[in-house]
Amino acid sequence: MHCNATTQNFESGSLSYKPLEHEYYHTYQDSDNAGSDENGKKNCPGYVFVCYRNPNGDFEQKAVLLSKLSTTCDALADANIDCWISQGVFSYPCRRKSALKSIALSFIDLDCYKYEWAAGMTPEQMAASFNRFCDAVSVPRPSLIVFSGRGLQCKWFYDKAIPCKALPRWDAVQKELCRKFAQYGADQNAKDCSRILRVEGTMNTKSRRYVYVVYRQHDEQKQVRRFGFDAFADSILPFTREELRQKRQARSICQKKSEQQNASSTLTIQTLHKARAADLVKLAELRGGIKEGHREVFLFDLMCSLTLSGECTDATFFAKAQAMAAQCCPDFSLNKSDLTTLFKRTKAHLKGERVTYQGREKTPIYTFKTETLIRRHAITVDEQRQLQVLIDPGVKRERSLKARAEKRRADGALTRQEYTARSSARRDRAKALYADGVSKAEIARQMGLSRSTVTRYLQGEMQAEKSVESMVSYLVVKPAGTASEPKAHVAPLSVVNARSGKAEGRAGRSPELRGGAGESLLLVVCTSSGLRFRPSRIRKIRPKRQLE
Question: Which of 24, 183, 382, 443 has the CB geometry, 3.0–4.6 Å to 2, for a possible disulfide?
Answer without folding.
Answer: 24
